[in-house]
Amino acid sequence: MPRRSPRIVIDARPSGPAGALAVARVRGISVLERLVEQSRGLGCEPVVIDAPLEDHARLRGFVAEFDTGRYQFTSGERPPDGVVLRTDRLYDPSRLRRAVRAGRDPETAVIWRLDTPQGLAGAEQELVRRQSYQPLGRYWALAPARALARALAPTPVRPNALTLAAGGLMLVAAAMVAFIAPGIGVQSAVALALAAALVLDTADGHLARLQGTASEFGRWLDAYLDELADMALHAAIAWGAFVRDGQHSWLLLGMLYAMGKYQFVVATAESTRDGLDGDEARDDRGDQDSEAIVPPSALELTDRDLSEFGARATDQCATNLSLRERSDAERPGEGEQPHASAQRLQPDAPRPTSPRGRGDKPAPSPTQGSASGRQHKGGGDKDTRSALRGRHAAPFQAQLAAAIRLVGHADIRWHLWIILAAIGRLDGALAVYALYFPVRALAVAVKKGVRRA
User: Has this prediction a pTM greater than 0.85?
Assistant: First the structure.
């Protein structure tokens, strides 16, 4: 017998300094639109949108291109067994789906809170960071990092302490590589220190979200210490190899790595500000404290009007959920996300009337371009659908470019350090990346020059 699915309620009442958070735009999409799409994928419809009566007309404009017969606006009247999704939260769609199916609190699926001082300012950066999720670390580092974050959440320990601890372990590993003669014990200690640093670097972001203590300083400190540890480790590798072999070529490789990495960081930072090659820097930076997000538009929808609350709605919700579970294997894998540059948050002002005559519907801003343009009819995010199709139809050149970027991904490099440290061949990483980053920096500079010409 199909399981009974709960009814979904979107609480659109939370407000921020600029007004209702339901209409706040994150990466070109209002919070309400995002929640509506996520609720459609939970296998239970229709959906209740609870908002003050005076806001109903405006909010209808944000769901006008959906089939509004599937939703009902109320003011304080909610189903007693409803699962409440708040517009001052951002949720991970896959975790939210699992939480609803298991009867858990949707708060367990929250990835960002908008009711904090850095809420809206940091939300967009958080979603962008999650596009560069760990391709390898997710399989082993994520579980202990989450457990550590949950254990520390009620304590006075703050995320910056974990960030400093991760950086400290990296510097200790670098010191061992540079000044201690290689051997099985030293190799094992270096590999373990690098692995522990990866777990801590993953846990700091999770702890920040659980405590609501994310800050611009924390993000800066994380990036700064990562780069410092990166440079220190490769300098230590160069010095240790020179002491071992007596060949000055290792010192030259160390200098070449430092120059190439610096040029790469500068080139990608400039390109990102100019709207070019934004993915280059994200591929290098990685972001170990992130999780993958399933594009909300990848979730499906079934027809049901809100007036059919009751037996028919319950039966249909259960049927939809069963069908959706059987089709999970056919849906794009979790963590797939189109590469798009971060969009600036736009003030929530009334938009001009669209060609379809829906004056309350937000129109895409000129800065959004195709990266965040949305098309709800027929499946949702056009950029997401194009990216999903493009994975199968991409030409060889695009696949090669993606593979080259992956080699420089922070998570890939971190795992390479761990493996090579365990076998005592960290100098292999120096040899590879002393060539890799200068070539990448030159490629970015040439591409920028060609586009500017």
Answer: no
